[in-house]
Amino acid sequence: MIELCESPIDVAAVLAAAQSPQAGAVVLFLGTTRQFTDGKETAELKYEAYAKMAMGELQRLAEEARTRWSLVGCAAVHRLGVVPVGEASVAIATSSPHRADAFAAGQWLIDTLKDQAPIWKQECWTDGSREWIHPGAPAESSP
Amino acid sequence: MIVQVQLFAAAREQAGTPAAALELPRGAVVADLRRALGEQYPQLRPLLASALFAVNAAYADDQTTLDEQVEIACIPPVSGG
Predict the structure, then answer these.
(1) Most CB atoms within 10 A, among A57, A107, B52, B62?
(2) In this predicted complex, what is the ipTM?
(3) Which of A52, A136, A142 minimises the CB distance to B13?
(4) Hey, are the CB atoms on A134 and B57 less than 8 Å from each other?
(5) Chain A residues with CB-CB distance to B under 8 A?
């Protein structure tokens, strides 16, 4: 299960996609909208993607994870549009016969997704300002 | 030749359009595109310095050759997750 969605992530469905009688371990990672960052309060996050390429990259990362670790199941879902505080923007579930592979693959998948998938978040602060997050680029903000 | 470049996030907002049309010489590569985009939209230059480009929905390098048929996108530093 590799998906981009615009509504709340169905976490039970992501878990179900990774679960299997062949797996003795299932690891679920959720990335959620944090209320405070460096003392500033977030009202909500807004995500945008180059959807066609993001889907391709997620597929490619899932395939690479399967070559690196002994996985039974591997699922990744990223939500786009507005993600309110406390809700999940990304869910990754991995399963393996023994837990070490599922943990390692899950960590690698979220780290690599954040580094490579063409998806962007915009911080919408409670003071009304907005800011696209482009790590390493000069700071930018617009009212 | 005329190529279309898809723009996202701050690049889209700074340029004021989700897609830019650029005139490039035949045989142009990604490095030429980066330069032309900065000339047409000077406000994009700071972001372009750290942006990547995708050709046919896969990351390309500065020497990747372009033509009118390929799908091109400007990928400023990503922040999904």
Answers:
(1) A57
(2) 0.96
(3) A142
(4) no
(5) 31, 47-50, 52-54, 56, 78, 89-90, 110, 113-122, 132-138, 140, 142
Residues of A in contact with B58 (CB under 8 A): 53, 56
Q: Which two tokens stand for residue B16?
A: 């004021």
Buried b (16+ CB within 10 A) or exposed e, A75-114: bbbbbbeebeeeebbbbbbbbbeeeebbbbbbebbbebbb
Summarize the confidence of residues A27-47 as an average pLDDT.
97
pTM here is 0.96
CB contact under 8 A, A119 and B78: yes
Q: Please give the Cα distance from A44 to A124 (Å, whole number).
A: 5
Helix axes A51-68, A99-116, angle to 10 degrees: 150
How many CB pairs below 8 Å do chains A and B form together? Answer: 92
Contact B9 A122 (CB under 8 A): yes
Query: Dihedrals φ, ψ of B10, to 5°?
Result: -65, -30
